[in-house]
Amino acid sequence: MKNTNVTVELLKLEKLLNKVGDLVITNSMMAQSIENLPSSDEKKSLIEKITLLQRHIVELQDYATDIRMIKFESMGEIYTSYLNDITPKDKSIKLKIVGGETKVDKSLIEQLDDLIKMLISNAVSYGIETKQERIQKEKNEEATIRLIVSQLNGQISFSIEDDGEHIEEELDNLEIIKEEITKLNGDLEIAKNQNGSIYTMIVPLTHSILDGLNIKIGDSLFILPTSSIVESIQPTKEMIKYVGDGTSQLLMLRNEFIPIIKLYEYFNITAKAKKLEDGILIIVKSNEQKAAFLIDEFLQQQQVVLKAIETNFKKIQSVAGATVRGDGSIGLIIDVKTILEAH
């Protein structure tokens, strides 16, 4: 059987996805122009055609995105070889990959490769005991480092878990890892359990095209990634509970208490609905955190092209990026994760 694989430069794939992004924006502009036309049979026909074009663009984006994706298990040999190279003779360590079926963007792996290796190196140097020490502790002479990959809610996590002793001191290169993860709008989480240490890097997926819900607060429009949305409700007074001195409010939804965040206060803008029962609460989630965003109304859902603001301006807190709307205006995409962590 002939080999049907071809090698493509990552830069060319980046250009292809960027061009698909341009098509999304152009299609959105055309749809907006058609929407502004007076009602007629011709307008109805144009709407059908633009809807078909949008479907083709979505399929093209899926194909282009899939080309960039690899199963993480294909990286197993690389990290196993790296582990073997840095393991001293007085230690015995094996690498186990969990979640190897998870598909990961090639460019994201390139950005995280050095950081993953740093965390493996830390586990070898500081976490894993020598064979003799492990025997004395009645542990298996061969230690295990687990590289766990999982994907949820538009984010992907890479955990390096060892079954060695607890690390008490701050590692030399931990600050470097934190800085690099922050540049990717991600987080580094450190946890201990009875078996050892777990270092988890959580970063957004690098897809530049996402589904967004247009929301309105006063006269301001924002875009909320649909991957973060759980549900939306029109709250009643009975669903609102007050805590502390009465200024903090919680939403009681199906026996679950969810903190309420008034986005008009968060962004310091004037809203139409200041009473909770006059507005809409959108339940959002990031990792295990939930919150209810108070907004005035939500509008249509659409595909948007995510562009980094800091490229041409500067990083704005609580804003994941920007996009070009169908009318040519700039739309700000809300960073749900940052808002929930700051609350």
TrEMBL record:
Task: Identify the SMART domains for this entry.
Answer: CheW, H-kinase_dim
GO cellular component terms, alphabetically, are:
cytoplasm
Q: Determine the domain of life of the protein's source.
A: Bacteria
The CheW-like domain sits at 209-343
Show the Gene3D superfamilies listed in the entry. Histidine kinase CheA-like, homodimeric domain, Histidine kinase-like ATPase, C-terminal domain, SH3 Domains
EC number(s) stated in the UniProt entry for this protein: 2.7.13.3
Please list the reactions this protein catalyses. Answer: ATP + protein L-histidine = ADP + protein N-phospho-L-histidine
Q: Which Gene Ontology biological process is one annotated for this entry?
A: chemotaxis
What's a single GO MF annotation on this record?
A: phosphorelay sensor kinase activity
InterPro entries xrefs: Bact_Chemotaxis_CheA, CheA-like_dim, CheA-like_homodim_sf, CheW-like_dom_sf, CheW-lke_dom, HATPase_C_sf, HisK_dim/P_sf
Q: Which UniProt keywords apply?
A: ATP-binding, Nucleotide-binding, Two-component regulatory system
Report the function annotation for this chain.
Answer: Involved in the transmission of sensory signals from the chemoreceptors to the flagellar motors. CheA is autophosphorylated; it can transfer its phosphate group to either CheB or CheY.
**Which protein are we looking at?**
histidine kinase
Q: Give the species.
A: Arcobacter cloacae
